[in-house]
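As a warm-up, study this chain.
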Amino acid sequence: MDDSLIDDEHLSLEDRSLLPSKGFFIPESYREREREEEFEESVSGRSTVMLVDGDADGLGAVVLGRQVHDDLGYSTASPNYLEDALERLAEHVEEGATVYIVDLCPDPDVSLDDLETVVEKAETVRWYDHHQWDDDVREAIEGLGVEVVVGESDEVCSADVTLQQFEEMGHDFDDATRELVAVTRDHDLWIRDDPRSDDIADLSVFLDADDYLDAVSEGPDIDDEYHELLAEKREEKEKLVELAVERADMVEIGDVTVAHTYGRCSQNEVAENLRGEGADAAVVVKPEGGTSLRGSEGFERCHEVARELGGGGHPRAAGCKPDVFDTMLDFARHWTTDGEAARAAVVEAFEEVLDG
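Now compare it with the structure written out below.
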């Protein structure tokens, strides 16, 4: 296939908003080999390992971990592919290693077979998070010997939890590191009192993980080169948000107004715009099939809706991937109908939760 067909540089902004990024079109078998190699390189031979979500919150925990452990290896994982990450961790973690799993919430039906192997091989396994956990899953994980600490999802981020636990172990952190955690919380909980919180959140998307860690290694006050990058990327980001907001439809489900839309965009900004137009809950279906749910004071059950579709998260912020993709033709229809089938599945999930 000609690279120009899927390369952002050769696509109009509107076409870009309808299609997944180039990485989506790389065969999963090839991506799996890449992930396996990267995981092995990051974990093998390390006395301490962190498995984290690849956003600013998860990577903030890596900043902390690097200051506590000289020989820290880390790898990022998506909550939707946690089982795959645990399988790789079970294969590559060293005997007697210390393992941290951070900012990753297990689904109710997650298999714990590989986690059990990790516990058997490692000296210590600690799981730090701040999402809404299923009680039975937590009990099962703790029953394997994992130390689980889950903070209040509306008060702290996972970096907060990690900081607190490291401090209880006797480790001290400088003011810049503490400030980074506070700014991370400001964005992750969608408080947004500190303008730097949007900077670090956007950087964690625009940069790969290693480059992001370099950018914030001395705190949340980033260098000018990163501000220049942000200015360029944000102009494009704002246009993609506008396109998604224009595609939105509103539906009344009981006494809740749900806005649903489609596009490659920043879901938080889209949700904020849709709330401004009267939505209690906002749904953003992405071209690659994932879906983000954002709530408000008028709707705090996003995690329940996401669970109906095999996902999870917070009362006001959650994610899932509707099971509507059986063949590549389903994706073709997805891209040419503005995510019609996935949007219908999410609306149905809202109805199940609100009518139930």
